[in-house]
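Below is how a single chain appears once it has passed through the pipeline. First comes the sequence as given, then the structure the pipeline wrote out for it. We keep one example in the README because the format questions we get most often are answered faster by looking than by reading.
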Amino acid sequence: MDSLTADAFLNGNIRIMQNKTGYRFSIDAILLASHVDTHPGDKVVDIGTGCGIIALMLAYRNPEIKVYGIEVQKSLSVLAAINVKDNNMQDRVIIICSDVKDLKKSAISGPADIVVCNPPYRKAKSGRINPDNQRAFARHEIKITLPDIIKTAGSLLRVSGRFIMIYPSERTADIITNMRLYGIEPKYLKFVYSKKNAESKLVIVEGVKGGRPGATIASPLVIYRDDGSYTDDVGRMFIP
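Resulting structure:
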């Protein structure tokens, strides 16, 4: 365990073990989890669950849902399963080690109500590839591409089910194009800014399988104040 760190979230209600030097989740996961509205009985699929942070946050906030965390990297799936057990959520969160391109509805006992994803941001041949495989796979489209993710989401969702993801703003057109290609209609976009008056770096997009055209552009989300502290909107995301 010397290669792991223990971190607490939601006022200590969730404990997460993470690799010291491998992939570690970022604020993006917190932003995404906070924008997923669940209802009792929902079946949620978290594509690329990593250490399981999004799955655990969702299951903690609504104990009456079931979350399937899908992770292709064996080492991360083992770590996610440890985190599930350490937080006593085995009845709510199931970790599956699988390439999502091979994932069938039968693996999650039927269609999903919600699919969420905080996917690799960079195209495989863009920028320097991190020599650490965990970080490289998490940041670059090596194991999976954006079209792969959205195609899988479309195949797993029930009609009227929701797909929610966070991605670089510069690839908004790619998101919308692929969502429509695979039968998911974009319904909500929220642009995220590091600081006020900066350019948007991220966008949270929600779509509905088989939904009617018509999207809402929500008010922007600013992460940091000028002094580097979290804005009130983001600070509330860390409260249980």
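The first strand starts at residue 4 and ends at 9.

See the next section for the split statistics.
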